[in-house]
Amino acid sequence: MNSPNTSSDASPALPRIAVLATGGTIAGAAPDATSTAGYQAGALGVNFLVDAVPALASIARVDAEQLASIDSKDLALPLWNALVARIDALAADDAIDGIVITHGTDTLEETAYALHLTVKHDKPVVLTAAMRPATALSSDGPLNLLNAVTVAAHPGSRGQGVLVAFNNKIHCARDVVKTSTYAVDAFHSPELGVLGWVQDGRVEFARRATRPHTRDSQLAIGNAWPAVEIVTSYAGVSRTAVDAFVAAGVRGLVVAGTGNGSIHATLQAALAEAAKRGVAVVRASRVGSGHVMKNGAANDDALGFVSAGSLNPFKARVLLMLALANGVTSRDALQAIFDTY
Predict the structure, then answer these.
(1) Which of 216, 251, 284 is the last residue of a domain?
(2) Is 329 in the active site?
(3) Would residue 204 count as lying in a domain?
């Protein structure tokens, strides 16, 4: 933990928030202030991010730490192990009231959900990010960081699981998805809506997450991540990808189906064969919102498939990896996991 980032002049009565930086656009640098695309993600350190928001000192005593400096499109799964270990270690410190993670937007929703299922405490954990690099005109990173610390310091955030604070909105990690390639309002929770709002220092929660998470989750992160891949159904799709993945020894496949998780007949036949060979097959949808109903667009019972419910394919992959890593392998037990989380 880097002491230069601690707001030592802040009142001792203020909450103490740990900020873990992992890189991303929020720490991106471009050659000029008008560039919002040609930049290097993760180029700037956590000191820069914190120093750019002097108002943090009026909200919390901030301890900042650089955990990684990556473009989140290049995220490797060991970073999730490192994050969970560091978060749980910080949460075990009675002096720490909450944790903020700065992250890239590309895989933020996956990281948030993985943490939501595996950290084992009820202290606030809040992810935030930016759509514009730190060097850009009207960069959204400083305000998002200010709001994330505000949410993490708020007593109403405790026990809510992992949250995402972005563009004045507070999302549940399970629900949030990235919906725009460029807009600063890039994250939404299409099925259930936001948990609440944060603006001008005020935090308001309209609802709470109801599915098990964090301390109530039976899932734990391990050192090894089972191989799980994603395939997509589309017009004229072949079975090449499924056959290659099965030959490579994957333990699970998530299919991004059309509509209500419907699957092209050619692809469905390949997936059914994979399921008979012991590969876990989860049926999700490539559509941006909605539920994949059990036995709705495919005979899951007969084919040995699992319905992802309202999880998109990328979050379904996270849950399937965790379930397999925790020894859940039968089709019925996997369906129970997806129905629960």
Answers:
(1) 216
(2) no
(3) yes
Write out the E strands in 151-300: 162-166, 169-172, 177-178, 187-188, 196-199, 202-205, 228-232, 252-257, 280-285
C-alpha span between 6 and 12 (Å, rounded): 12
- Both 124 and 94 in one domain: the answer is yes
Q: Going residue by residue through the chain, which has 341 residues, state the pLDDT in tens, using 9 for 90 and above.
A: 444 444 444 446 899 999 999 999 999 999 999 878 889 999 999 999 999 999 999 999 999 999 999 999 999 999 999 999 999 999 999 999 999 999 999 999 999 999 999 999 999 999 999 999 999 999 999 999 999 999 999 999 999 999 999 999 999 999 999 999 999 999 999 999 999 999 999 999 999 999 999 999 999 998 799 999 999 999 999 999 999 999 999 999 999 999 999 999 999 999 999 999 999 999 999 999 999 998 888 899 999 999 999 999 999 999 999 999 999 999 999 999 999 99
Catalytic-role residue among 25, 118, 128, 258: 25
Q: What is the pTM of this model?
A: 0.94
Q: What is the distance between the alpha carbons of residues 56 and 78, in angstroms, rounded to a whole number?
A: 30
195 shares a domain with 285? no
Q: In sequence order, what are the residues at sequence separation of 6 or more whose Cβ sits closer than 8 angstroms to the Cβ of residue 302?
A: none
Residues 66 and 183 in one domain: yes
- CATH number of the domain residue 125 falls in: 3.40.50.1170
Q: What is the token pair recorded at 154?
A: 């708020």
Q: For residue 223, is it within any domain?
A: no
| Structural domain that includes position 104 | 3-216
Query: Do strands 305-307 and 280-285 pair parallel, antiparallel, or not at all (unpaired)?
Result: parallel
Length, in residues, of the chain: 341
Short-list 145, 185, 121, 133, CA closest to 27: 133
- Asked whether residue 233 falls in the same domain as residue 206, the answer is no
Do 308 and 280 form a contact (C-beta atoms < 8 A)? no
21 lies in the same domain as 168: yes
Three-state DSSP class for residue 77: coil
Contact in structure between 60 and 10 (CB atoms under 8 Å): yes
How many Cα atoms occupy the beta-carbon half-sphere of 163 within 13 Å?
A: 38
The total number of structural domains that make up the chain: 2
